[in-house]
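hey m, so remember when u said the tokens were messed up on ur end? i reran from scratch. heres the input so u can diff it against urs
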Amino acid sequence: LNTIIANIENSFINATNINISALYLWANNTNLTSPLTFSMGNAYLTNVTVMQITSIDATIYRSWWVTVEVTDLAGSALHNATVTVYSTQTEPFKLVASSLTDENGTAVIALLTDTNYLINATYENCTHCIYKYIENNTRITAMLHEVIVKPSSLVITITPIPEVKAGEVFIVTGTINYNIKTISIENVTATITVNGKPYSVDVNPDGTYSKEITAPNKGGTYPVKITVVDYAYNLSAEETAQLIVKGKPAPPPDYTPLIAGTVIAVVIIIIIGVIFFKKREKIKPYLLILKAKIKKEEFIECGECGKKIPGTFKKCPYCGAEFEEELVKCSECSAFIPASADKCPKCGAMFEE
């Protein structure tokens, strides 16, 4: 005997008579009459009067639960897919249950017996059929290969940012995903803006991101906004967090050692250049003489210092004497002297015009 709804009209601590008004009484015994004996805990109540008794033949059935998960080709859950269950014990098959999937793509259905069933999962005119022997707590996955659900939005998170000092470097981290988590993020651009200054952000394939940013130089509360544009599915979204900056500005970097090192390096380079230039001036005559010898030029004797120099030179590389006129050989000492000279500066020979 099972009372589905019972209203107790009178109840007293020492009561022996209780009137119960029952809407339904289920029993297999059709000769059910009043009065009845009810047990409540360890106490047995007698002289119970039931105001109205409706006796019926009934059977209490056990329910066999089946969970159907409906997904698209990528494994994404399909919301509001139709799941129908047919009993295969008769011809034609008899529809015994029907349900829509929830936001997780799941439909939970109670069946009256464990037997073979035909389960159809339908979404956007695409159907997947499964023949299955159903026992209690059976789970079935129906994948609709013709369906690929595209994400409809971006889900952005920003990890709470701890309080920082003015001018201090901090890191902004978080995730960027589609509303369908089984689809990997791709082909997106992300920008973090702090105090009006934008920072480009790289997004990893798993949707995570991380960016080092320098806090403003003035204390206060600043919005940290990340803006994402997705080109794969033409989506965009943004999310905002708060940055609390405390204290005075952080001291600027000390570049004194770097500047001092740079000045010292420049001075050393200048000194090396001067030394090289002076040495080059000293060896310049020898370089010129060597070059003339390689070309097999005719050599003459300088009228000032007596050193052998190429005849094409207008200036002696040894003593610096300049030759403005054409040089000729002295008939006495063979020294090269200006063609207009009346006297050889080498041997003192006199020349007549």
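this time it looks ok to me. Confidence is low (pLDDT under 50) at residues 1-47, 50-60. if urs says something different then somethings off w ur setup not the seq
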